[in-house]
């Protein structure tokens, strides 16, 4: 029997992600190897294997986030996600500030038609 896959995500970044998700009790973390959150079939956070966090945001919030944090759209498996922002490492360390954006993301996916 093959052994279960193990995450290559740096432990410190995984711990920061865990703390962020726990800061909003109604959000459930999913994925053993590839941590993510989703609601009604729509992912809204994803922590890649390098420890880079992607956050899905509505268009107006996305534009403001990209400008404020001088970041880019999130790239996953070589594909640029048009409604996702790359969360800077410095912001990932600031759970209190990032929590506000996570809540915006969560509220946004609640408005999307379930898959």
Report Rg.
Answer: 14 Å
N to C succession of SSEs: HEEEHEEHH
- Uncertain runs: none
Q: What average pLDDT do the residues reach?
A: 95
Distance N terminus to C terminus?
A: 34 Å
Spatially, the strands of the biggest sheet line up as: 1-2-3-5-4
The helical percent reads 25-40%
- Total count of domains: 1
CATH class: Alpha Beta
Please state roughly what percent of the residues sit in beta strands, choosing from under 5%, 5-15%, 15-25%, 25-35%, 35-45% or over 45%. Answer: 15-25%
Structure classification: alpha+beta
Number of helices: 4
Q: Give the overall shape, derived from the CA principal axes.
A: globular
CATH architecture: Alpha-Beta Complex
CATH topology-level fold name: Aspartate Aminotransferase, domain 1
Protein model, in words:
By secondary structure, this protein is α+β, with helices and mostly antiparallel strands. The protein has a single domain, classed as Aspartate Aminotransferase, domain 1 (Alpha-Beta Complex). 37% of the residues lie in helices and 23% in strands. The chain has helices spanning 11-22, 59-68, 89-92, 95-110; strands at residues 36-39, 42-47, 53-56, 73-76, 79-87. A five-stranded antiparallel sheet has the order 1-2-3-5-4. α1 (11-22) crosses α4 (95-110). The protein is globular and about 40 Å long.
